TrEMBL record:
Domain DAHP synthetase I/KDSA: 83-324
Pfam family, one: DAHP_snth_FXD
Gene3D superfamilies cross-referenced by the UniProt entry: Aldolase class I, Phospho-2-dehydro-3-deoxyheptonate aldolase, domain 1
Biological processes annotated in GO: aromatic amino acid family biosynthetic process
E.C. number(s) listed in UniProt: 2.5.1.54
Domain DAHP synthase ferredoxin-like positions: 1-67
The protein's enzyme class: transferase
Protein name: 3-deoxy-7-phosphoheptulonate synthase
Keywords, in A-Z order: Transferase
InterPro entries, per the entry: Aldolase_TIM, Class-I_DAHP_synthase, DAHP1/KDSA, DAHP_snth_FXD, DAHP_syn_2
Length: 347
């Protein structure tokens, strides 16, 4: 349920309404817009509360939200959420590109890739320090040392950093070194992890489970939002279908659907979404056309010899740079801004 007030309602009156709601044993979340303020009511409210609110001065409308996810719903927050991370805005007019290897391997490797990402015009360095792998004998990442390596490379080259966090116990240490924490597809419904991420303010990139519905995806985001962390991004990274030619099936329709259902920024991952290097470039462009706020793209200096074995979906540096040049031309046609900083582009 939401209570809607007009822009003429004072902040003092809104606070009085919030206090009244919370006295009923439920939570109130305030979302301010240009022409109205929405007060989201979370919890099992007394059926009489709706009528009581309708009769209060300052309340123009009370609407019942049938969706199980409330805070993630566009009904609660009509305007797009824009997450500002050290001056980089995600969810607004700016198209954001996150690039880098599947995993951090050595200081030299991540430093060189960070230089290339920055030179091409990317804003965020991606890299895994802890890697959830299907087989127990596969490379599992270099751990906290990898976090330190990536943090140093990001700071040196003026990039934000994003890395995957796998367990609640590692949330605090990952947040210490990374600007954005990623929840992988296998952990989308790791509810203990989601609850822990709700207790911090570090932005979270939540990847869709490879067999999850939109409703399940948005309810997973709701766990983080309900815990008190409003900085959540949704990532479409491909779902599992009967097709075996590609690693996954990138669900491009998820981008406009999620933008319709939710106010949260939507990021596309064409690398995992296809698993094939030759498909990453066209599906990146298609994602932008579908309305994505950003991309997370794998790039490696020597993808055929990467330690994770995911090199088949990683772009070479020149492919990455050329793709970003194309995005600079494409973005304005679709209402986005993107600047590759031409003076720094690879020769």
């Amino acid at each position: 349920m939401i209570a809607i007030t007009s822009n003429k309602t004072s902040d003092e009156r809104i606070q009085e309404i919030v206090q009244f709601i919370e006295k009923q044993g439920v939570q109130a979340h305030v979302s301010k817009g240009e022409d109205r303020t929405v007060i989201g009511i979370i919890g099992q409210a007394d059926p009489k509360l709706a009528e009581q609110l309708r009769q209060m001065s300052g309340v123009e409308q009370v609407v019942k939200i049938s969706k199980s996810y409330k805070l993630a719903s566009r009904d609660f927050h009509p305007a797009d959420t824009v997450i500002n991370i050290k001056g980089v805005e995600i969810g607004g007019e700016q198209l954001v590109v996150m690039g880098g290897p599947c995993a951090v391997e050595t200081p030299e490797q991540i430093d060189e890739i960070a230089r290339l990402v920055k030179a091409a015009g990317g804003q965020v360095l991606r890299g895994g320090a802890f890697k959830p792998r299907t087989g127990p004998y596969s490379f599992q990442g270099v751990g906290v040392e990898g976090l330190i390596m990536m943090a140093e490379a990001g700071k040196k080259h003026g990039l934000l950093t994003i890395t995957e966090v796998m367990t609640p116990e590692y949330v605090d240490v990952c947040a210490q070194y990374a600007d954005i924490l990623q929840v992988g597809t296998r952990n989308m419904q790791n509810f203990d992890l989601l609850r822990k991420l709700g207790t911090i303010q570090t932005p979270v990139l939540l990847k869709r489970g490879f067999s999850s519905t939109y409703d399940e995806f948005l309810n997973a985001a709701e766990y983080i939002l309900a815990g008190g962390n409003p900085n959540v991004m949704l990532c479409e990274r491909g779902i599992r279908t009967f097709e075996t030619y590609t690693r996954n099936t990138l669900d491009l329709s998820a981008i406009p659907v999620l933008k319709q259902l939710s106010h949260l920024p939507v990021i596309s991952d064409p690398s995992h979404g296809t698993g094939r290097r030759e498909l990453v470039v066209p599906m990146t462009k298609a994602s932008v056309a579908a309305g994505a706020d950003g991309l997370i793209i794998e790039m490696h200096t020597d993808p055929d010899n990467s330690m994770t074995g995911d090199g088949v979906q990683s772009l070479f540096p020149d492919q990455f740079a050329n793709l970003l040049v194309d995005l600079e031309k494409l973005a304005p046609l679709l209402g986005k801004k993107f600047d590759t900083q031409k003076e720094a582009i690879l020769a």
